[in-house]
Every structure is written in structure tokens, then in C-alpha cells.
Amino acid sequence: MSHDFSIARLGEATIPSPIPYASEKGTDMANYVGDDERIIFNPALSRSASEQPVSGQSLLEVAGPRRNIYFSPGHVHAGVITCGGLCPGINDVIRAITRCLWYRYGVRRITGLRFGYPGLLPETAEPTIALDPDVVDDIHKIGGTVLGSSRGGGTRTGEIVDALERLNLNMLFTIGGDGTQKGALAIAEEIERRNLRITVVGIPKTIDNDFSFIERSFGFETAVAEAAQAVAAAHTEAHSAINGIGLVKVMGRESGFIAAHTALASHEANFVLIPEVPFSLEGDRGLLRLLERRLDARRHAVIIVAEGAGQDLLPDSSGSDASGNRKLVDIGLFLKDEISRHFADRGKPFTLKYIDPSYMIRSAVAAPTDSVYCSRLGNNAVHAAMSGRTRMLVGLVNDFFVHIPMAVAVSRRKQVDREGNLWRDVLEATHQPMQIGQG
Ligand code: ATP
Ligand code: MG
């Protein structure tokens, strides 16, 4: 399948970049990327493709500083906004954007927009804050977002663009998940309708790692590291009790990447339950009987459950949050109750410890690998915006930083392929059957 990865631009880039560039003898600080540099989206060759390697392949634009830019740095007024849930590394991204604009391009007007899209709306407007290298100096050492975040309000596109006009912004960086980037896309379209010269560049944030077309979202490695600690604690508790059961709930509304990676990182989980793989509790091959057998054999067990797993077993919550996301019923508490009831009914002694580390994970300080990633995402977002590119996200694909059109990135989610390598490795690590119960 080929995708349209062409990137929109506000206009031609005719201004020489102020980033120092010295060829041959001097240092090459800019390492400019040519506008024609592309990578192949899917490097796997099928037999038919190998006969004609590139035709029909989707190509992605390589990110990085351009020799010519669209905006004159002295005229730039950039805004940075963060929306949606917390994720390790948001402050690192804000810091990188600010520093790259300031030091690389000499931009002096950088404004932090507070508490997400609602902070731009008339009745919930928030005062903005000026960002400079001093303000952002130490922010990567703390979790959360120094700008504040929120949900809702993102669909009031016209009023948001009014606010951007009022603030005199010509550059907007949107740090947030699928909802945020859908909002950003609508904002960019409204900007185009009004014939304004404002670029909108997104930095995709999803702790669940479920943005399609993007290899690894920032904060994901930190999340797995933190989740692995929770699993280690659950394992210790389980191991130290008679028929000890450790149950850990991790993030993953639609995709079980954190659960799968955590299981592989710790090798202590016996059951991993994710949204992509349905399971049932009852029956000879159901979770409860499998758990019972595991306890009979080894006297302790560890379960990792992603928050979106097994929702079909639960009563429909039918509620949604301010952004319109479906509210999930707590699968962790449900499992805790069902497992407890099962063993109590059988008069079998057991100890169950339920750990939900979600908020500790979301608010964690980014691990060094994520910090590196965040700063490079932030830098590349700035280079893209300065070159006049708009309606796009920065991301990592096949180890290259690339530009991805917003419309393509939000078109679908990435999920664990239950017939793929990752899930196979998880099954090998846990020894759980391919199917738990009726599935
Ligand atoms: P995460 O899900 O990782 O927390 P997110 O960006 O998806 O991040 P949401 O709360 O869903 O978080 O959305 C963030 C912002 O985007 C909110 O202000 C919301 O109103 C807005 N938004 C969500 N969906 C849309 C949409 N379809 N169109 C316009 N705006 C949207
Ligand atoms: Mg979302």
C-alpha cells in the first residue's frame, strides 16, 4: 500500500539559514538536509517489489535544517502548546524547541500557551508565558509539562485561530496525542482558509506508542522502565506469599505495547493481557483455571494487564471525557475481584497484590534515551517550521527523523499484531497459550 506523504508548505523558502555552515575546512554545524532527500517507508522487500525496488514505494521527507528557510527569524513569533495526558519527556521537547529557535535561528519571541486548547478560548483563557533558554534551563529534570495541559475544547477551531491571530503567532508547535494532532490539523486547515501565514508542526505524544507510521513515541522507553519496576515489585510480593499473585495494570487503551515490552523486559510475567488479544475468564482454558494451574505448579504468578484489555468482559461505562474519549472501566480492579472470588470460592489460600503505577509512570522524568529522542524531535520540529512546512508531525521511521503529514498520522492507530514477532516473543517469555479461553 502506498501513502501520500507529501508535506504542505506556506511558500517558497528563499531566506538563507542563519545556522553557520562552513564546508570542507571549517566545522559543518548545519549539516543541511536537501529538500529532495527521502527514505523508503517500508524497507521490507516482497518478491515482486525486489524486482522493481522503488516504484510504488511510499517515500518520506527527511527532517533537518534547510539551507534556505521561509521565515525571517526576526519576524517569528512561536507558540508552544501541550494537550492531553502527561507523558515523560514533554518538558524535554519544550526545552529543545525553545533552545533551537533561540540559539540556532536567533528567534526571540517564543510564547508558552498554557493548559492546552481551552487556555486559548475566551471563557477559559490563560495568561501566556515567555519562553527563553533561562526559563527552560532545568525543566527536563522534572516530569509533567511546565505549560500545563488539559482535555476538551479542541474542536472550537475558529476561536482557537482567532486567539492565534490575537497573539500574533506565526508558528505553532502542538505537543500531544492523536486528539491534539486532529485538533492541530483542523487549526492548520482553518489557517489556510483564512489565508494566514501560520505554520503548525506537531510533536506526537503517546505513551502507548500507538501512533501509526512512527516507530517509537517519546516517553515510551521511560514508561517501560517504570512499569518494569512495578512488575518487579509485584513479583517480589507474589514470590514471598503462599499462592501469591501479583497483578499490574499498565497504560495501553487500544494498544498493548507497554504491556508487551514490559513483559519482555522483566521476564517475570506469566500472563500478559492486551486490547488486541481477547481472552475469557471462565472455562478450562480460561484465565482463572490457567492461573490456578500455574499456582499449583509454581506457587506464585504475575499478570500484566493493559488498561484497554478485556473491555468486552466489563459492563459498558458509556461515559466519555472532555475530549470525547470513551471512559474505560478499570480492568485491573475487575480482575482483582474476579480472581479473589474464584480462589475464595474454592477455599484456596492466596494473596493478591494489585499495583496500578499509571500516574507514577506518566509523571516520571524522562530516562536519558527518551531525553535524547525528545531533544532531537524538538530540534527537527523547529527546522521544519522555519522552512515553512506545515500540517505535519516529526517522527522517527527506520531510524531517520522524518516529516509525516498530520492527516496521514492521525488516520489510524498502531496495534500489536497478534501474529507478529513481538507478540510471539511475549508468548515465548510468558508461556501463556495463544488463546486464553474462548478469545
Ligand atoms: P492522549 O490521548 O495521549 O492523552 P490526546 O492529544 O489524544 O493525548 P485528548 O484529550 O484526546 O488527548 O485531546 C487533546 C486535545 O485535543 C483536547 O483539547 C481535545 O479537545 C482536542 N481534540 C481531541 N479530538 C479532537 C478532534 N477530533 N478534533 C479537534 N480537536 C480534538
Ligand atoms: Mg488520545
Automatic annotation (TrEMBL):
Q: What is its EC number?
A: 2.7.1.11
* Keyword tags: ATP-binding, Cytoplasm, Glycolysis, Kinase, Magnesium, Metal-binding, Nucleotide-binding, Transferase
The protein's GO terms of the molecular function aspect are: 6-phosphofructokinase activity; ATP binding; diphosphate-fructose-6-phosphate 1-phosphotransferase activity; metal ion binding
Q: Which cofactor names does the annotation list?
A: Mg(2+)
**Source taxonomy lineage?**
Bacteria, Pseudomonadati, Spirochaetota, Spirochaetia, Spirochaetales
Binding annotation for ATP: 85, 151-152, 177-180
The protein in question is named ATP-dependent 6-phosphofructokinase
GO CC annotations, alphabetized: cytoplasm
Q: Where in the cell is it found?
A: Cytoplasm
* Enzyme class, UniProt record, top EC level: transferase
InterPro entries listed in its UniProt record: ATP_PFK (IPR022953), PFKA (IPR050929), Phosphofructokinase_dom (IPR000023), PKF_sf (IPR035966), PyroP-dep_PFK_TP0108 (IPR012004)
A GO BP term here is: fructose 6-phosphate metabolic process
State the family named in the UniProt similarity comment for this chain: Belongs to the phosphofructokinase type A (PFKA) family. PPi-dependent PFK group II subfamily. Atypical ATP-dependent clade 'X' sub-subfamily.
| Protein's pathway | Carbohydrate degradation; glycolysis; D-glyceraldehyde 3-phosphate and glycerone phosphate from D-glucose: step 3/4
Chain's role: Catalyzes the phosphorylation of D-fructose 6-phosphate, the first committing step of glycolysis. Uses inorganic phosphate (PPi) as phosphoryl donor instead of ATP like common ATP-dependent phosphofructokinases (ATP-PFKs), which renders the reaction reversible, and can thus function both in glycolysis and gluconeogenesis. Consistently, PPi-PFK can replace the enzymes of both the forward (ATP-PFK) and reverse (fructose-bisphosphatase (FBPase)) reactions. Catalyzes the phosphorylation of D-fructose 6-phosphate to fructose 1,6-bisphosphate by ATP, the first committing step of glycolysis.
Q: Where does substrate bind?
A: 206-208, 251-253, 307, 359-362
Q: Which gene encodes it?
A: pfkA
| Gene3D superfamilies according to UniProt | 3.40.50.450, Phosphofructokinase domain (3.40.50.460)
Record-listed Mg(2+) binding positions: 178
Top-level lineage group: Bacteria
Q: Where is this site: Important for substrate specificity?
A: 179
Catalyzes what? beta-D-fructose 6-phosphate + ATP = beta-D-fructose 1,6-bisphosphate + ADP + H(+); beta-D-fructose 6-phosphate + diphosphate = beta-D-fructose 1,6-bisphosphate + phosphate + H(+)
Q: Offer one Pfam family short name for this entry.
A: PFK
Pinpoint the Phosphofructokinase domain residues.
78-384
Oligomer status and interactors: Homodimer.
Task: Show the active-site residues.
Answer: 208
What HAMAP family does UniProt report for this protein, alphabetically? Phosphofructokinase_II_X
Origin organism is Alkalispirochaeta americana
